[in-house]
């Protein structure tokens, strides 16, 4: 969420918005529907956002931005000034370098009024202190922040280029030069601001048809299987000032030949905010990438079980594929993963709906007796993904251990949330309280998933079956396996 503290010079917030819109509309080819306006949503913790002035029918164009106005490698003069290929840095680092260049030009940048409305402080996990990160407890998101990797890439790829071209990158962060440790630290901080903007604001820019035609002549060896990774990234003014909402998403960006066009995908009522969509992402990822959480992404919360944790509970000495025949067997059959994601079960969901088939096969393989395993291996026949009491017991134990790794109970988290947001608290919390609250929301979501999956497993446990039989209640689940 974005409040005043995230923006440079918050006292000029409205003035900067007005200047940005005036600049935008003065650019040839830009069209902005008079039915929308750029709103100040800081009181709800959402920074700027786009709101409908009057009702808008489905399919109507909200705005259109020409491709040459996108802040991207191909549109910045840096490409010709630098004397070396910027694109070879890859989509992330090349845009980071271009943004560093444009930001360093101050008012001389073509995108100056746009850069002035972008935040310079973030609540994304990259910026959390170790104590704040500990509030996420056992969340697997902690392994995905990638701060060290990002630091390394910036220091190895960006810093040398900036230092070699001081005329193109005049220092702007209160230092007189980017040389030495202090200079490197200032540049690293600035580069992380640009990286965070790219993460939360940039779009993957699809090629226009004539660019596609040119690309066909390229050497195929540069192409990779993962096309998305190869798409250049770009900052699309105005399109990236839309907030996002999982349930109220009512607009989408269409990448056309000459322009990128935002259109209403639903009828929008007067006064309604216009929302983009970030896709079905769990709140842990929402926090990591966008620095905010809202409850309507709770439906996408997940828990993640690393292979190593599963192996440990199953009694394997380690999870090294080369030294563990059961893992090797699954690997050879292409059904072994590094970790397994279990989504939040919906109201009527069954285990079959939520457990990945690969996880069930792993649990089954780990539960086989040595003879059963040898038999399967000799026939090269991995087990079918069906759950019986053995696998259920193993998974139950794995989930209970995971549950214990979180340092607090759901009840304690609930109390903390109530304490952080008493009835009259402002809708937007600032600073550390905001981060504490978001961490509590994320870990609570994961604990709820754990609790629900544990409850779904209970009827399959041997003790539950025995108890039912003793009560005279014939339980067919004891003999029947649940096919996943
Ligand atoms: C693409 S920008 C949207 C414009 C942004 N609000 C601003 O003022 O610059 C994405 C950022 O907006 C904020 N955001 C997006 N959707 C939000 C929402 N539904 N509620 C609160 N903040 C939101 C988050 O800080 C996110 O990183």
From TrEMBL:
Recorded GO CC terms: nucleus
Keywords: Methyltransferase, S-adenosyl-L-methionine, Transferase
Location of region: Disordered: 208-230
PROSITE patterns hit by this protein: SET (PS50280)
UniProt-recorded Gene Ontology molecular function terms: protein-lysine N-methyltransferase activity
Gene Ontology BP terms: methylation
Entry superkingdom: Eukaryota
SUPFAM superfamilies: RuBisCo LSMT C-terminal, substrate-binding domain, SET domain
Compositionally biased intervals (Acidic residues): 211-229
Domain SET residue range list: 34-279
Alphabetical list of Pfam families matching this protein: Rubis-subs-bind, SET
Name of the protein in its database record: SET domain-containing protein
């Amino acid at each position: 969420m974005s409040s005043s503290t995230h923006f440079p010079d918050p006292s000029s917030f409205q003035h900067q918005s007005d200047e940005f819109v005036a600049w935008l509309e003065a650019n040839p080819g830009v069209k902005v529907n008079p039915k929308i306006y750029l709103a100040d949503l800081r009181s709800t913790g959402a920074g700027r956002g786009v709101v409908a002035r009057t009702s808008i029918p489905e399919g109507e164009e909200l705005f259109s931005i020409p491709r040459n106005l996108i802040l991207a490698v191909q549109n910045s003069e840096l490409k010709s000034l630098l004397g070396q290929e910027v694109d070879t840095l890859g989509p992330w680092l090349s845009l980071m370098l271009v943004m560093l260049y444009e930001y360093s030009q101050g008012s001389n940048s073509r995108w100056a009024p746009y850069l002035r409305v972008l935040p310079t402080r973030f609540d994304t996990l990259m910026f959390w202190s170790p104590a704040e990160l500990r509030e996420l407890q056992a969340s697997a998101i902690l392994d995905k922040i990638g701060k060290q990797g990002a630091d390394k890439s910036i220091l190895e790829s960006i810093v040398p280029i900036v230092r070699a071209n001081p005329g193109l990158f005049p220092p702007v962060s209160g230092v007189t030069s980017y040389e030495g440790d202090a200079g490197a630290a200032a540049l690293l901080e600035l580069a992380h601001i640009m990286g965070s903007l790219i993460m939360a604001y940039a779009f993957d820019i699809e090629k226009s048809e004539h660019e596609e035609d040119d690309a066909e002549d390229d050497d195929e060896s540069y192409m990779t299987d993962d096309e998305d990774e190869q798409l250049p990234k770009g900052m699309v003014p105005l399109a990236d000032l839309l907030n996002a909402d999982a349930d109220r998403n009512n607009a989408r960006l269409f990448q056309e030949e000459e322009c990128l066009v935002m259109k209403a995908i639903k009828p929008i009522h007067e006064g309604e905010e216009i929302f983009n969509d970030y896709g079905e992402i769990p709140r842990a990822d929402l926090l990591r990438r966008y620095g905010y959480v809202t409850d309507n992404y709770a439906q996408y919360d997940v828990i993640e079980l690393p292979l190593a944790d599963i192996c440990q509970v199953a009694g394997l000495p380690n999870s090294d594929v080369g030294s563990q025949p059961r893992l090797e067997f699954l690997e050879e059959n292409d059904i072994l993963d590094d970790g397994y994601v279990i989504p939040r079960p919906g109201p009527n969901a069954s285990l079959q709906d939520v457990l990945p088939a690969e996880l069930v096969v792993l649990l089954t393989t780990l539960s086989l007796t040595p003879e059963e395993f040898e038999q399967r291996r000799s026939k090269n026949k991995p087990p079918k993904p069906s759950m019986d009491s053995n696998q259920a017991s193993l998974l139950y134990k794995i989930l209970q251990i995971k549950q214990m790794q979180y340092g607090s109970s759901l009840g304690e988290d609930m109390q903390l949330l109530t304490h952080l947001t008493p009835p009259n608290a402002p809708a937007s919390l600032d600073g550390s309280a905001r981060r504490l609250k978001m961490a509590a929301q994320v870990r609570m979501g994961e604990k709820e998933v754990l609790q629900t999956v544990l409850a779904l497993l209970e009827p399959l446990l041997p003790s539950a079956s025995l108890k039912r039989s003793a009560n005279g209640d014939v339980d067919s689940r004891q003999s029947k396996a649940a096919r996943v």
